[in-house]
Amino acid sequence: xxRVGAVKLFxxxxxxxxxxxxxxxxxxSVLGTSxxxxxxxxxxxxxxxxxxxxxxxxxxxxxxxxSELAPNVRWNSDEITQIGLSFCSRPYADVKGAxxxxxxxxxxxxxxxxxxxxxxxxxxVSAIAEQYGFTxxxxxxxxxxxxxxxxxxxxxxxxxxxxVENTTLSVYGSCxxxxx
Amino acid sequence: MSADWADVQLWKPAELQFAVKNLQKVEDSIVELGxxxxxxxxxxxxxxxxxxxxxxxxxxxxxxxxxxxxxxxVRRGLSEAFDAATGIVNLRDQAIAFAEGNELVIVDNMxxxxxxxxxxxxxxxxxxxxxxxxxxxxxxxxxVEEVVRRAGYMDQDLVNLLNTGVLAxxxxxxxxxxxxxxxxxxxSEGESGIYAPPTGDGTPDQNAAYWxxxxxxxxxxxxxxxxxxxxxxxxxxxxxxxxxxRALLPQYLDEWKRKLRQAQEExxxxxxxxxxxxxxxxxxxxxxxxxxxxxxxxRERVDSLGSVAEMAQRPNRMILGLDLSEKRTxxxxxxxxxxxxxxxxxxxxxxxxNVVGMKNYDTxxxxxxxxxxxxxxxxxxxxxxxxxxxxxxxxxxxxYQSPQxxxxxxxxxxxxxxxxxxxxQAGGDRLARFHQGLxxxxxxxxxxxxxxxxxxxxxxxxxxxxxxxxxxxxxxGSPGLSVDDVEDLKVRSGNVFYAEADGDGIGDLAKFGKxxxxxxxxxxxxxxxxTVNGEELSGVRLHSDYMLEESTIQYNLxxxxxxxxxxxxxxxxxxxxxxxxxxxxDLGRMVEKPFGVFGR
Lengths: 180, 600
Known about the structure:
Chain A is built from 4 helices and 9 strands; from the N terminus they run αααββββαβββββ. Chain B is built from 17 helices and 10 strands. In chain B, a hairpin with a 6-residue loop joins strand 3 and strand 4.
């Protein structure tokens, strides 16, 4: 190898070392959980099917609570629907049979809780969510006429309730393994 | 003589269809006449007169076959000309309507802008106005050019058929065993080839015009017989590109699996000789290295194509690009349909990103689409959340050689090294074309947000130095936007956003232009944790954290893609490194290059 080549190689190795530390997993699998570890972590979670049941139950209960406290919100439907289905993010991206999904309640509610009733809605929704393990989080945005409450569980699933003119209520599910 | 714009103004395709129907009737009459002629063939008659009659009968029959061949060919030629003329006239009318709707005038084969738009080179808004007018003018000009181009091809096809096939007697020289065969032969001879797209890549406007000048049947024929023509062609509608790529994907996968097997077998055979004591010559060693490189390449192709195939099976995915012409596979995958979405986000990932690992980004785009769709509904711009989500398409644009964290890549200073801008510049040109294609492929306005992370932000910066039609851009964790002044980006003032986590060292490198954290004219997006209620939601801490599911930045990017920048949570989450150093004179020297090893 020429001297210039050796210097280049050394420089490249040095840069890699610096970037590897700085990136900590950016885009690729530089550092992180192994595939086996990732699978084991997922096996310790509820299955995709069980998680879906739980998310649906949570959304239904929260939807009812919002309707009770803010009856002006008219839901487009009574259904809980899936609006997204994808692979899992890292470190679970390559685990076979694992997926994550997004569910929404009532295809959205036309109208929004008033600013006066919103604190009560938040408190009630947080209490319901806590029973389902969504204990972490709070208001991502909390302005008059524009709010977003986000609550997370230990697996990384998020319950999101927000409004401007209309109200949205959704669960962004975490990664889970299918039963079959 | 080829047709020009003025000629096409007089075209009435219905007259061609009328001629086709009449020729069809003539063909039917000839076939009927032929049946009668069979009955008139001399059978139980002999002698000189009989021989003369039989000769005359054969001559008439042959003449009928020749004429039928010619008429069937002309009928087929006119039928195809009708399809072509229909497409041409449709595009002609589109061009006229587009010109009228945008204060443009078509004169002869040129497009003139009637709006006086003075260019003040130092005034960003003026530069943008001028660029946008030019974009409209170019789009209209491409339509006019395509009308003339296609009309010329169609005209020439017919001239060739009539002059060479009929008048010069070439068709008559073809033999057919029967009238029915003559009819089939003529129809086949009259067929013109499939009309090909502009040579080279074509501009997105040219490609869109090409597609719009094809009749629906012709478009289907291109997808079926030549998917490679349009699979990666910017300006072609995305549904067509998706169909083309889905047709090509299994072919590519089979081909590269076969190549992988073959190379492995050859290498194993060579290795087997070595283990059996045969001395391997220097040529053999070279061959072994070559086979190893081939295997590595084939494995990359098989893995990346497999990754695309998996994404293709997810709901609402569209494969908008699949390019095997470079060292690493390139692809573009959309969640949602960019042909119909009112809001489109185009995400360009950075260092270490590749198609093999693209599923991770696909997941992020699926979530981002939902966040944006929900925002549309919250603002009353969609009837429901599902409808809101349908109005959004979020695209992972992995159509460049993004640098990898390997010795080969980092050390390839003339190639795709992260230390250089080669990949960002080349990728930026491609990305600009992709954005231009979004404007070219659609007649209605689409709201476009560009998203660039890490080295992908540099690539996006290069793209946006060109006129692209992008409405706003959000960069995050950027080592530089390729510019020192935000006004060097062709994006309207107030529509450039930047997010940087406080623990993101890459964002402070200022390697490819001024540190965006210190650039006036940029709106800073918060990457902080959400307001605490009990424990904390994840804020973004590191270079790779920006798209965490519940992070502030995901919300911010979602509302930007939905077109509500006023909803974004703004504020700096990191201290600009340069400013921090400048505040301490003893460290001021380090401001220019925080990491000396990254010198340009």
